[in-house]
Design goal:
Elements lengths: L12 E5 L2 E3 L7 E8 L2 E8 L12 E10 L5 E3 L2 E5 L11 E7 L4 E5 L9 E3 L5 E6 L4 H8 L4
Antiparallel strand pairs: 1-2, 1-5, 3-4, 5-6, 7-8, 7-11, 8-9, 9-10
InterPro entries: CHP16711, YopX-like_C, YopX_protein
Protein name: YopX protein domain-containing protein
Organism: Lysinibacillus mangiferihumi
């Protein structure tokens, strides 16, 4: 309770295990327990129906759901590559950005890749973005942008 009001927010994660994407997909999570330390995931104890996920711990990258959906209704997660569709003058439209968590301001932002000119980070507004991929499944999208070929 905050100020007499109930606060409810969906907290979800997806995971990348080397070349496999996990999000209630091929490895549906069961018996989950996530341990946090210093605001970061320290360990995960879960079974996937095939093997304990903690046995894959060193190979897993976790991405948090931002709580927002893009212009087409797709959930936006950390590590997603998004196309900015807004029309703010000083922000480049149609430039791909990466969703990251900004510790200093305790929020998610859409950040330009290193070496790309423009407004470095844009605060998320769910209707101004379209998810086009993620940094694990589509790394060439960022490489093309950094090389100036996108």
């Amino acid at each position: 309770m905050v100020g007499g009001h109930s606060v409810s927010r969906e907290i979800k994660f997806r995971a990348w295990v080397e070349n496999e994407h996990i999000k209630n997909g091929p490895y549906p999570f069961m018996n989950q327990h996530i341990e946090f330390m210093g605001g970061l995931i320290n360990d995960i104890f879960a079974t996937s129906g095939k093997e304990p996920l903690n046995s894959l711990h060193n190979k897993i990258t976790y991405m948090q759901y931002t709580g927002l959906k893009d212009a087409k209704g797709k959930e936006i997660y950390e590590g997603d590559i998004v196309d900015y569709l807004g029309d703010i003058d000083h922000i480049n439209s149609n430039v791909l950005r990466v969703i990251e968590y900004k510790n200093e301001e305790a929020c998610f932002v859409a950040r330009l890749p290193v070496g790309v000119d423009g407004e470095e980070a844009v605060y998320l507004n769910e209707h101004d973005f379209k998810v086009v991929g993620n940094i694990y499944e589509n790394p060439t999208l960022l490489e093309e942008l950094q090389n100036g070929t996108k």
